[in-house]
Design goal:
- β13 and β14 (272-273) form a beta hairpin.
- This protein starts with a helix and ends with a helix.
- By secondary structure, it is α+β, with helices and mostly antiparallel strands.
- Among the domains are: 3-36 and 321-537 and 830-1002, Multidrug efflux transporter AcrB transmembrane domain (Multidrug efflux transporter AcrB transmembrane fold, Up-down Bundle), CATH 1.20.1640; 139-180 and 271-316, 2-Layer Sandwich (Alpha-Beta Plaits); 181-261 and 691-774, Multidrug efflux transporter AcrB TolC docking domain, DN and DC subdomains (2-Layer Sandwich), CATH 3.30.2090.
- 54% of the residues lie in helices and 20% in strands.
- One of its GO terms (molecular function) is xenobiotic transmembrane transporter activity.
- InterPro entries: AcrB_DN_DC_subdom, Acrflvin-R.
C-alpha cells in the first residue's frame, strides 16, 4: 500500500491532519453533553385527572372508560393503561417510536380539552405530564425545624427557597412535598339544622369567591380587576350564606374556620418530621454540573436561614453517575498504563513505545468529535467504549510499528524500514480496521430503546477504530521514520531471546501438529459443542443488577383504620432497618394510599455489603411485623427500558372482558398454581377488592317526590364522613386548598338531614346504606380490565428459567374472556434476547462480506471466521467461571470480540497468501512461516487488548456490574481464543486451500 509512503514523504501534512483531529476533539469536548446513559426520548405521556372523594369504582366508570375511548383514536398510540384509585384517574399513553413526541403531546392535549365536557363537572383540571428520563427528580433536599410545623416549613420553602433553586441553570423544577396549609371549614351540624341550610348552598356561595374577575379598563388603558377572592380566615368568615328575614347568616355563624395543615400526608426525615424538595433537571443538562451548583446554592441558603432551620441534601442521583464515571476514567488511565507497559516489554525500546502511546489521545479526541457531530453524549456506555478502545487503537499502530521494527533489526535505516514495513502491512491494517468497524454495523439495525441505547456505544468504538486506522497509516510510519534510530537499541535483550524461543517452539509445534487432521478437527468440534453446553448453563437476564445505593419498603394501606393507626405500623417497618449499619439516611412518606420508606445506603467505598444483601436482611426483619403487607425493594438498574419493578422480580398482565369479581377468582387460581412451581419464592397479584366501603341505595319512587338533586346528596355525604375539596385560595401568593367538613361524624344515615323546601328530610327516609367490599385500585390495560401477577424468584433461579416456566404456564391457560400479556420486563427480555442472537449472526456475516471484498475471495474470509467460535468458547467459559450472566452488556462484548479475534486470522491469512505468491511455497510452508512472522504482533495486540480490558474486570463500586460483564467476555475470549487461533487457523488455511486447489484442478 502506497498511502503510508506518501505521508512518510510529507511529515508536515501527516502532523497537521492529526493535530486537527485533536483540536476538533477538544472543541467537541467542551460542547458535548454528559449523561449517565444515552438520551432515549420515548413517546410516553401520563394524564392525571383528580376526582375528589370518588371511589375507585366511580373513577373507573365515570372517567377511565370515557377517557380511554376518546384517547384510543390518537395516531401512533400503541398502548394505553389506566389506574383508578380513590380520588384520581391516571392514564398512561405509549406511542410508537416513529411518532414525533411534540405531535403526540399536541394530539393528547387536544383530546383532553375535547373530552373535558364529557367528564363529571366536579373533577379538578386534568394534568398532562411528559414522560422522559429527565422528568424524574434527581436531587432531593430535606428541611426540618423542631419549632415549626410541616405546613409552616412548606410555606417558608415556597417563599424563600424554591425560586432560588429554579433560578440555577439546568434546573427545570423544584417540587415541594409535605403536609401543606389548607383552609379547613368545619360546619356546625346543629347550626345548619337551625338555619335550614344545605351543604350545597354553602358550596355555591364559596365558589362565587374563588377567583378575581376582569372588569374592563379606564380610558382604554388602565385595567380594573374585581377583587372578590378570599385570602384569609376573616375573608371566609364574612361570606354571607343566607339572609333570613332581617338576619344575615355568615359562614362564621355556622362554621369554624381555621388555617391548618393537611393531615392526610406526612414526611419523616431520619425519624423526624420535615418536608422534601425534589429537584428536576432540564433535558440534556449535565447532572454533575447541576448537582454541583445546587450544593453551592444550598450552602449559601443555609447561611441566610435562622439557626433552627436545617436544610440538607438527602439523596443525589448524580452521585452514582459521578462514582461510575470516575471509575470508568480510572479504568481508562489504568488501561493506558498497562498497554504502554506491554508495548515496551515487547519492543524494549522507549522511542518505539512512544509511537503507539501518541495514538491514544488522538483517537480519543477523534471519538469525542464524532460523537458530538452526531449529537451523541459522553455517558457510561460511550466512556466504556473508550476503555475498550485503548487496546484497540494501539493495535494498528503496533502492527505497523512491529513490522517497521523488524526491518530495522534486519539492518535497514529507519526511513527505508518505515517505507517497506508500512507498505507491506498497510493492506492488513486497512482490512482489520474495516473488519472491526463493520462488526458494529448491525447495531444500527437494532430496534427499540435498546437499539437507540447501544448505537452510541457502537459509534464510539467504531469511531475510535477508524481514527486509529487513519493514525496508523498517516502518523505512525512518519514518526517511526523520524524518531527511531538505526540498529538494535534493545534495553531488555533477555525478553528478545524469550520471544525468539517462543517463535521457534511455535514453529516446531505447527510442523508437528498441522498434519494431524483428525486431532485438530475433533478439537474444533469439541470447542464448538463445549460452547453450546456452557451457554446453556449460564444464567440469562436483560441487564446485570446494579447496586445503586437505595433500598426501600412499600407498605400497603390497611383498610378501615385511621392514618395515625397506620403510621404506627409504618414506624415499626421504618425502625426495622435501624440496626443495618449500611443505611446512612432514611425518608418515610406516609399517605392514605400507603407508606414508602426510602433508605439511602453509605457510598460504595464505605460498605462491604451490596444493596441486594441489605435488601435481604431488611426483608427478613420486615416479615416479623404482623398485620401489614410490606414489599422490600432495591433500585437495581437505571438503564432506560430496564428499570426494576419494585413489586416483584417479574410480572405478567391478566386482562379480561369480565367483571373484577370474576377476574380475582381467576387470579387466585393462577397464583395458587404458580406457587407450586419450585422456582418461585413468592407469587402475588395486585387486585384487592376487600377494602371496606358503602353503597347508598335510593328508593327511586320516594326520591323522585323530593326537590333534591343527587349532587346535593353527594356533597352532603362527602362532608359528613370526610372533608371535601372545594377550591383554592392564595396565601402570600401561594395556592392552597379549601376543604369543607362536618363537626359531627354520624353513626348512620338516619342522622344525616337534607332540606327539601326548608323541611328536613332524613337520608334514611328514602335511601339505605349498605356495607360492601371496595377496590383500592382498578387497572385497565389497552381498554380491558386488568391486573398483574408479580413473581419473586428464588436467589438461585435464573431469569431465563423463570421466563420459560412462565411462558409454558401462559400457553396452558385457555379460559374464556381471559387474555394474558407478558409484562414489560418479560417482553423486553424475549425481544432483546432474540434480537441480540440475530445481531451476532449478522455481525459475523458483515465481517465475512467485508473480508470477501477486501481479499476478493470467498475462501479466505471463511478461514478467518473460524476465529469466532474459538473466541466465543473463551468468553463463555470466563463468564460462567466468574459467576456472571449473559446479558445485554456481555452480548455487546461478544460482538466486539468477534471483530477483535478475527484480526489475528487476517494477519495470518494475508501473510500466508503473500508468501505463496512471492515464494511459490506450499500452503503448509506458507502458513507456518506466516504464523511465525505474525506471532509477535499477535501476542502484542492480544496482550494490549487483554490488559486494556483487565481494569474492567477489576472494577468495583458504582456501575461495576456492566463493566465486569464486558471485561470477562473480552479477557476470556481474547486469551483462550488467541491460543486456539494460533493452531486452528493455520490448520483451516491448509484444509480450505487444499480443497480450493482440488476444485480448481477438477475444473
Amino acid at each position: 500500500m502506497k498511502l503510508p509512503v506518501f505521508f512518510i514523504k510529507r511529515p508536515v501534512f501527516a502532523t497537521i491532519i492529526n493535530i486537527l483531529i485533536v483540536i476538533i476533539g477538544l472543541l467537541a469536548f467542551k460542547n458535548i453533553s454528559l449523561r449517565e446513559y444515552p438520551d432515549i426520548t420515548t413517546p410516553e405521556i401520563t394524564i392525571r385527572i383528580p376526582y375528589p372523594n370518588a371511589s375507585a369504582e366511580v373513577v373507573e366508570s365515570e372517567i377511565a372508560f370515557t377517557a380511554e375511548n376518546e384517547l384510543a383514536g390518537i395516531n401512533g398510540l400503541t398502548k394505553i393503561k389506566s389506574s383508578s384509585t380513590y380520588g384520581e384517574a391516571k392514564i398512561s399513553l405509549k406511542f410508537s417510536e416513529e411518532v414525533e413526541f411534540s405531535k403526540a403531546l399536541s394530539d393528547v392535549r387536544e383530546k383532553v380539552a375535547t373530552m373535558r365536557s364529557m367528564l363529571p363537572k366536579d373533577i379538578k383540571e386534568p394534568q398532562i405530564y411528559e414522560n422522559n428520563d429527565d422528568d424524574d427528580p434527581f436531587y432531593y433536599i430535606s428541611i426540618t425545624n423542631p419549632n415549626k410545623s410541616s405546613e409552616e416549613l412548606i410555606h417558608f420553602a415556597f417563599l424563600n427557597i424554591q425560586n432560588n433553586l429554579i433560578g440555577i441553570p439546568g434546573v427545570a423544577d423544584a417540587q415541594i412535598w409535605g403536609a401543606s396549609y389548607s383552609m379547613q371549614i368545619t360546619l356546625n351540624r346543629n347550626k345548619l339544622y337551625l338555619y335550614k341550610i344545605n351543604v350545597s348552598d354553602i358550596l355555591d356561595k364559596l365558589k362565587l369567591y374563588a377567583t378575581n374577575l376582569p372588569a374592563g379598563k379606564i380610558n382604554d388603558s388602565i385595567p380594573i380587576t374585581l377583587d372578590i377572592s378570599c385570602l384569609n380566615e376573616q375573608d371566609f368568615s364574612n361570606i354571607v350564606i343566607k339572609n333570613q328575614g332581617s338576619t344575615t347568616i355568615t359562614l362564621k355563624d355556622i362554621a369554624d374556620i381555621k388555617l391548618k395543615g393537611n393531615e392526610d400526608f406526612r414526611i419523616r426525615i431520619n425519624g423526624k418530621p420535615g418536608i422534601m424538595i425534589a429537584v428536576k433537571k432540564t433535558i440534556n443538562s449535565n447532572p454533575l454540573k447541576v448537582s454541583e451548583q445546587l450544593t453551592k446554592k444550598l450552602e449559601k441558603i443555609r447561611q441566610t436561614l435562622p439557626a433552627d432551620y436545617i436544610i440538607t441534601s438527602e439523596y443525589d442521583k448524580s452521585d452514582f453517575v459521578r462514582f461510575s464515571l470516575n471509575n470508568v476514567k480510572s479504568s481508562i488511565i489504568e488501561a493506558v498504563i498497562l498497554v504502554v507497559l506491554i508495548i515496551f516489554l515487547f519492543l524494549r525500546n522507549i522511542r518505539a513505545a512512544l509511537i503507539p502511546l501518541i495514538t491514544i489521545p488522538i483517537c480519543m479526541a477523534g471519538c469525542v468529535a464524532i460523537l458530538d457531530m452526531l449529537g451523541f453524549s459522553l455517558n457510561t456506555l460511550t466512556l466504556l467504549a473508550m476503555v475498550l478502545s485503548i487496546g484497540l487503537v494501539v493495535d494498528d499502530a503496533i502492527v505497523i510499528l512491529e513490522n517497521i521494527y523488524k526491518y530495522i533489526e534486519m539492518g535497514k535505516s529507519p526511513l527505508q524500514a518505515a517505507k517497506e514495513g508500512s507498505k507491506e502491512i498497510g493492506f492488513a491494517v486497512v482490512a482489520m480496521t474495516f473488519t472491526l468497524s463493520s462488526v458494529f454495523i448491525p447495531l444500527a439495525f437494532m430496534q427499540g430503546s435498546i437499539g437507540k441505547l447501544f448505537i452510541e456505544f457502537a459509534v464510539a468504538l467504531a469511531g475510535s477504530v477508524v481514527v486509529s486506522g487513519i493514525v496508523a497509516l498517516t502518523l505512525s510510519p512518519m514518526l517511526a521514520a523520524k524518531i527511531l534510530k538505526p540498529g538494535n537499541h534493545n534495553i531488555l535483550p533477555k525478553i528478545d531471546l524469550l520471544i525468539y524461543q517462543i517463535e521457534t517452539k511455535y514453529q516446531t509445534l505447527l510442523s508437528k501438529i498441522l498434519p494431524k487432521k483428525i486431532l485438530l478437527s475433533t478439537t474444533l468440534a469439541l470447542l464448538i459443542v463445549g460452547s453450546a453446553i456452557i451457554y446453556n448453563f449460564i444464567p440469562k437476564e436483560m441487564a446485570p443488577k446494579e447496586d445503586r445505593g437505595i433500598v426501600g419498603a412499600f407498605i400497603q394501606k390497611l383498610s378501615g383504620i385511621s392514618l395515625n393507626e397506620f403510621d404506627d405500623y409504618s414506624i415499626r417497618v421504618e425502625r426495622a432497618s435501624d440496626s443495618i449499619s449500611e443505611i446512612n439516611k432514611k425518608v418515610a412518606f406516609i399517605s392514605k394510599h400507603g407508606s414508602q420508606i426510602v433508605n439511602v445506603l453509605n457510598d460504595w467505598s464505605k460498605r462491604k455489603r451490596s444493596a441486594k444483601e441489605v435488601k435481604e436482611e431488611y426483608q427478613e426483619k420486615a416479615k416479623l411485623i404482623p398485620s401489614v403487607q410490606t414489599s422490600i425493594w432495591s433500585e437495581d438498574s437505571n438503564l432506560p427500558g430496564m428499570e426494576s419493578d419494585n413489586r416483584g422480580e417479574i410480572n405478567f398482565i391478566v386482562k379480561t372482558t369480565l367483571s373484577y369479581r370474576e377476574l380475582i377468582k381467576t387470579l387466585d387460581d393462577m397464583v395458587n398454581t404458580l406457587k407450586k412451581i419450585p422456582l418461585f419464592k413468592e407469587v402475588t397479584h395486585n387486585l384487592e377488592l376487600n377494602n371496606i366501603g358503602y353503597d347508598l341505595k335510593f328508593n327511586k319512587y320516594k326520591f323522585s317526590q323530593l326537590n333534591i338533586l343527587p349532587q346535593h346528596i353527594s356533597d352532603l355525604l362527602a362532608v359528613s364522613f370526610d372533608s371535601k375539596y372545594v377550591q383554592n385560595f392564595l396565601k402570600d401568593g401561594i395556592s392552597y386548598n379549601v376543604n369543607l367538613s362536618l363537626n359531627y361524624k354520624p353513626k348512620n344515615i338516619n342522622e344525616i338531614y337534607i332540606f327539601n323546601n326548608n323541611i328536613p328530610v332524613s337520608l334514611g327516609g328514602f335511601s339505605e346504606l349498605k356495607l360492601s367490599a371496595k377496590a383500592n385500585e382498578l387497572r385497565h390495560h389497552n381498554q380491558m380490565r386488568a391486573a398483574k401477577i408479580n413473581i419473586e424468584l428464588k436467589p438461585e433461579v435464573n431469569f431465563d428459567q423463570a421466563y420459560k416456566e412462565i411462558n409454558n404456564f401462559i400457553h396452558n391457560i385457555n379460559e374464556p374472556g381471559i387474555i394474558i400479556d407478558l409484562g414489560e420486563k418479560l417482553e423486553k427480555f424475549r425481544h432483546t434476547y432474540l434480537q441480540m442472537l440475530f445481531l451476532i449472526a449478522l455481525a459475523i456475516f458483515f465481517i465475512y462480506a467485508v473480508l470477501a471484498i477486501q481479499f476478493e475471495s470467498f475462501i479466505d474470509p471463511l478461514i478467518i471466521i473460524f476465529t469466532v467460535p474459538l473466541g466465543c468458547f473463551g468468553a463463555l467459559l470466563f463468564t460462567k467461571l466468574s459467576g456472571n450472566s449473559i446479558n445485554i452488556f456481555s452480548q455487546i462484548g461478544i460482538i466486539t470480540l468477534i471483530g477483535l479475534i478475527s484480526k489475528h486470522g487476517i494477519m495470518i491469512v494475508e501473510f500466508a497468501n503473500n508468501i505463496v505468491k512471492e515464494k511459490n511455497a506450499s500452503c503448509m510452508e506458507a502458513v507456518i512461516e506466516a504464523s511465525k512472522l505474525r506471532l509477535r504482533p499477535i501476542m502484542m495486540t492480544t496482550f494490549a487488548m487483554v490488559f486494556g480490558s483487565v481494569p474492567l474486570i477489576l472494577s468495583f463500586g458504582a456501575g461495576a456490574e456492566a463493566r465486569n460483564a464486558i471485561g470477562y467476555v473480552l479477557v476470556g475470549g481474547l486469551t483462550i481464543g488467541t491460543i486456539f487461533t494460533l493452531i486452528i487457523i493455520p490448520f483451516m488455511y491448509i484444509v480450505f486451500k487444499s480443497l480450493n486447489k482440488k476444485s480448481l484442478t477438477i475444473t
